[in-house]
Amino acid sequence: MKAIIYSKKKLIILFIVSLLTLIFFAGFTILVRTKLLNQFDFDTTVRIQNHISKRWDTFFSFLSLLGSFEVMMSLLIIFLFVLKKIKGILVLCIFLSGHVIELIGKSFLHHSGPPFLFYRYNLGFLFPSSYVQPGSSYPSGHSFRIVFMSVMIGYFIFQIKRLSKTYKYILFAGIVSLCSFVLVSRVSLGEHWTTDVIGGAILGAGFGILSLQFML
Prior knowledge:
- The protein is mainly α.
- The protein has one domain (2-212).
- Helix content is 70%, strand content 0%.
- It contains eight helices and no strands.
- The radius of gyration is 18 Å and the shape is globular.
- The protein starts with a helix and ends with a helix.
């Protein structure tokens, strides 16, 4: 009985946190739409590109491929298959719903991405999803996907009982580091403004936490 009550409380907490996160995303989106952060976006991009050597461009470009829809969708399906969760189909629906919101934002927010002079992606290959250009850059789909997956994987790292706390923290630190590199790469490569990345990350966190309810 206590386990059932605890589980229900956990579900309620996850739902509330995800709801508050998505409300914050809506508020941040409104702020971005006012264009009050345009100068911040420009200045941040200049600073980041000035401080990150172009020697990192190839590494960040590979991370750009890693964060693509095709790769992340495949990894999510494999992740759910390994866990053998029947409700995994609901997680996939939530993941795809986040992309619907992403496309709606990019179609109606009118937040143009960085000009070509900032572009530093240097690989000769792009997945088909990269050619989908609704006309705006907010929010960043790569940021949404990497944070969504980081929330999912990070949570389950701490659910593995046979791992020691040390290994759990090491693995979690690795996930956080990879996620951070992907987020920085979006600005460093000149593919997104900082606000695009922040918006995508918030959206990914909200939907990722929401998905955890179907994985307990």
